[in-house]
Every structure is written in C-alpha cells, then in structure tokens.
Amino acid sequence: MTSSTLTFTSQFQSHTTEFLHLQPISLPEVVGTAQVKVKFLAAPVNVLDLVVLAGKYPVKPQTKYDQALVPGYEGVGVVIEVGGLVTALRIGEHVLPKDHGLGTWRTHTVVDADKLVRIPTPSNPVFASLLKMGYTPAYLLLQNMQYLKAGDWVIQNTATGMIAQAVIQFARLQGVRTVNIMRDRKDFDVVRSRLLALSADMVLSESQLEALVQVQPLSHTRRIVLAIDSVFGSSGSRIANQLVQGGTYVSLGFLGGGGEVKLDVNEGLLFYKAVEFKGFRTSRELAGWSQEERSDLWAWMLKLYNKGQLKAPEVEIMHWGSPAQAQDGEELEKKLLDVVEKTANRVVGMPKQIFVFEQ
Amino acid sequence: MTSSTLTFTSQFQSHTTEFLHLQPISLPEVVGTAQVKVKFLAAPVNVLDLVVLAGKYPVKPQTKYDQALVPGYEGVGVVIEVGGLVTALRIGEHVLPKDHGLGTWRTHTVVDADKLVRIPTPSNPVFASLLKMGYTPAYLLLQNMQYLKAGDWVIQNTATGMIAQAVIQFARLQGVRTVNIMRDRKDFDVVRSRLLALSADMVLSESQLEALVQVQPLSHTRRIVLAIDSVFGSSGSRIANQLVQGGTYVSLGFLGGGGEVKLDVNEGLLFYKAVEFKGFRTSRELAGWSQEERSDLWAWMLKLYNKGQLKAPEVEIMHWGSPAQAQDGEELEKKLLDVVEKTANRVVGMPKQIFVFEQ
Fold first, then answer.
1. Are both B68 and B150 inside the same structural domain?
2. A85-123 as b/e, with b when 16 or more CB fall inside 10 Å?
3. Catalytic residue at A272?
4. How many domains does chain A have?
C-alpha cells in the first residue's frame, strides 16, 4: 500500500523545517484485532503543531515511524479497514483523533480504534478537520472558563485567528457579544467587515483600543466578563484591564513565546476587581470526556455547519498526493515543508494552511 | 449612659491619624424593637481597617455618628439590652459583627440584631475578637481557594502575620503542610522557633528561600499546591514560582499598596504550569453564609481554642476606659491613636494591637 508521512527526528529548531522529512511508509495489509486503518482526508497545520515540534508542548507525539516522531495533532480521516474485534467503528465512517498526539500529517495510519472518535459524514472535510483544535477550544472557552449570561461580553485579541473566529460564532449562539482586537494592518477595514459578517459586535485595532480606553474603559458600558488572550505582554494586559469586577482572564498561551513575554498583573485587577487569571488548554478541558461525549459535541458542530450557523474559515489548501503520483518525492516534501514554514513565519492575515489528501 | 467612639471625618491620609477623633457618644436608653445594645469587649486594629480608613477598601463603614464614620470592622461584644421583637439574641450573649463595616472601635453600639452573629461565651475575649478577620480568612483560604489533600503543601509569605499563623494551625488540622516565608530579620531564629511550635513545617527567610530555589525548586520534592501572598511584587512572584502543576496563587492584597507593585506572571506559570491567579476577600467568600452558618463556624473555632488546637497570637493590649474614667479625654484619644499609628507604621515582628474595653 502506497502511503507517506512527515516525520521529525529531533527538536524542531525555531522556525526551521530542517528536521522534518517526508517518508514513504508501508502499512500492514491486515490490521490488529483492536485496530483500524484510516485514510486521512485533511489535516491542518496549527500553531500548536509548531509548539509541539519545538518540544514545548506538554502533550508529546504518540506515534513513531522508523524511529522518527509523526507530527500533526488534528485532522479528519475515513476508516478503510477494521480489525476483527472492533465494534465501535465501520468501514466508511469518518473519525477525528480522540486525544492530542496521534500524528495526522500522513496519508494513512493504522491505530487502535479507541484512539478515534466517530463523527457523521462531513459535507466539508476541511471544516471537519478543524473541529478539534479550532472550534472545540472556542466552545470550551465560552463554556468552562467563566459563567456567561446572555448580554455579557467577551474581549479577545488575535481576532483573525481560527479560534477567535469560532468564539465570535459560538458567542452569538448564546447571546453573548464580542469585542475583537487585531493588530494594526493595512487591510483593517476589509477584515473588520469580514468579522462583523461573522457576527462580531465590535472590531478594533490595538491602537484604536488604546485610544478608546484612554477616554473611558470599555467595561463602563459593557459587561465584559471574559478576556481571551493569545498575545500576552501589553496586548494581554490591555484586554485584562477591560474586564468588569469578577471577570476572568484566560491565556491561550500559544503565541507569546513560552515564558519570555510577561503580563503585568496588579492588585487593582487581582484584589479590587477580583479578576482571575488562568491558562487554557483544550486537552485538559476535554480530559474527562468519553468518546461518546466527544462524538456528540462534534456531531452537533457539524450540524451547525450544515445549517450555516458555523462557517469554515478562509484556508489555503496544499494537495498532498501520494509519493507514487508525485513526479519527484523531494519536490512534494519541499512543498509540504513550505506550508509548515508559512505557519511558522506566519504573516498577519495569512489564511490557515491545510494539507488535503487525494480522495 | 457613658460611652465613646473613635470616628473619622474624612479619608485617612496615608499613615496619619489626623482625621480620627475620640468622641463621647450618648446611646438611646431604650433600643428599637428589632435592635440590641452591645457593649464591646475587645476590638483589634487590623491592616484592613487602615485600608478602609484610606478609602481603599471596597466595603465602606456602615455607621455614622454625628456625621462622622465609625471605624473598626472586627470585635467581640456582649448584648446588654434587647428590643421587644428580637428573638435571636438575649442579654448576656456574645456576638461578632456579621459583615464588614459595623464600626467596632467604640465602647457601645445600638444595632439591628440581624447585623450580629451569636457565639458561645468565649473563655478569652481577645481570641474571640480575632475570629472574623484573622482565623476565618485562614480557614476559607484553605477551604475555598484550592482543593487540598492530606500531604499537600501551602506556601505563604508574611509568615508572622495573624492570618498566616492561623493558616499554619488550620493546615495542621487537615494534614496539610506549610512553607512559611518571612522577611530577613535579626530575631529570625526566635520567630522561627515560635512558628515551628505552632506546627509550621518549614520556616525560611526571603533570602534563604531565594538561595534554596536557585539549587532546586521546592516543588521538586513537595506538592506545593497553594501560594498565599500578602506582599506582591518579587516576594509574591517567588512563592508563585514554587507551585506545582495546577496550583493556585492567591493574593491577600492588603500590603502591596493597591496597584503600584506588580506581579510578574509569565506563560510558564499560566499556561504550561496551569497556575491560576486570584484575589481573596473574606467578605466575598462569606457572602452567601447565613447567621447560623457563621455562628456554627465561630463556635467550632472557639471549641478548638478551648481544646488547645488553636492558639491566640501575641497581642499588645490597649485598655480603653470610659471617658468618665479617664482623667483627660484628650489623653485617652492620644493613646488610642498611637495604637492605630503603630499598626499603620508597622514594624517587622510587632505584635497585634487590640483595644480592650472595661469589663
């Protein structure tokens, strides 16, 4: 069976793909009794994947191929072979990884069935591939970090990010409003319109926010109870300072560089305003969830997508053919690594990068 | 009826008692039907009282006398007269204020019975006068801020403070161990012995802690799950950094000067170590508690005291006679204000200041 995987043999050295390699892999013809064979359909390149490659993410890759680790923590696949004792999955069913670490940057895998979660057949595999690490964190941020009532406000930075776009949409579903902050950029008005179309209530650049709050904190007229920070440092402090009494600040922690940038937390916030500061990690929030619970969550999200209540973000697709199809394996490798580099050196406003596999 | 009160007529200007005055007060001979007359027995001077005087505490004084506010949020009294419709309290019963703001720096008060909580007759009124703002915060810090199991550790600074001493004792009752940090001081060994005698497990000066953790974080060999910070700034950051994965940092917020000193919170703590940062306020934690629930809590603490399982801290008593007894009202005023000044300009290791009223 012809298949291929990206692997990495060592710690990814900040923003270089030197240790990433495309390898042809041969999968067993017959899977183990508790295993299934999965053909992947789409696998996104997430900032979190780069944190993993840099050896800085707490959950490590779970799969090795030929001594090398297989990267990619998110993706959607279809079951193409089923072991004799597997009852939970059937050929033709679609699946997402249950936990972080599965290794999705490959055309196929053979894996224990209990590492997968069944989802309904998605109308758009690219959307489905973003459920676990795009839409699920957004959902859990609004569910688990702070008690939110209709009419409450959430403030977030990196408003153009995948998770932020999903937060806007889930917030709308529960009557919660959003202030969305993004970096100053030339195409601000275009992006602002796009976010408003997603149902953002307020879209500001960092400098607009700064100017505005010098006149009056946003919280004077808005019940801002949750701040979602993907930046840290002064941007994070700025949104934390917009919270009302008893609000919660949450760090997504991906983008701040792991401990170098600092957040100023003062007594005004911590004691007088009673703001809580915490970090968010999807894997921790989902830790107690069964396969069935995850399956139900993702089926519901697919339903929302089909009804037009959730939208897929803008993506840039890189078609990952089989090495056999490619004229030159090295050329494919180069193209795949370019995609990873794009996310590593991400430019403001760059669309999400996704590997899409041959159907 | 001869009685007197301290009042303050304006915002207390940082560490001066210029706006504090002793006034003779005349109380009604007959109390309202829902009221009781209370004679105070002891009323401590807490750092929180000074924050109130400075206009910086969220809960403001609830009583005025002759247009001036009555300070003092903690104390124990005895009921000496009861209104016709009061059934919950009887003459001779002992009481504590239910909420902040009652005004205890006075010999007597007439107050609605529902502002008071009945306690059993205390064997030591000075200990009873410290229940609400010394022992109760300590108890709630260990109950409500982090799930604590036997064998867990708590780290705290300002180890010689009233609350810290109570934390040491309540921790021992639940099998929880304490690391206690205090400022470098000449009589370190003496104080260390005293804290060890209270059942502190580890007592270090700030500089000893700093030297120790440069070799190895305390959390490598101790499950430190809760950090209680009364200092903020570098001392607060130092104890926050001793927490294990999933720990909680709590700011008591009294001593850091209200927003000027800052705490460095980095992603290592917030995201990777999943430490939560929050402020603690007794009034917030007790907000939902009925009079009966508070009464039960304090009765239990008095029982622990009588059994020798809680100890009263070292205190310095200032006898507050009646103005009639005093040769010179001005002289008494000066003595009382000196006591307040002592707490305002508190020196490391100074014992707690308490007003004790004539029996």
1. no
2. ebeebeeebbbbbbbbbbbbbbbbbbbebebbbbbeebe
3. no
4. 2
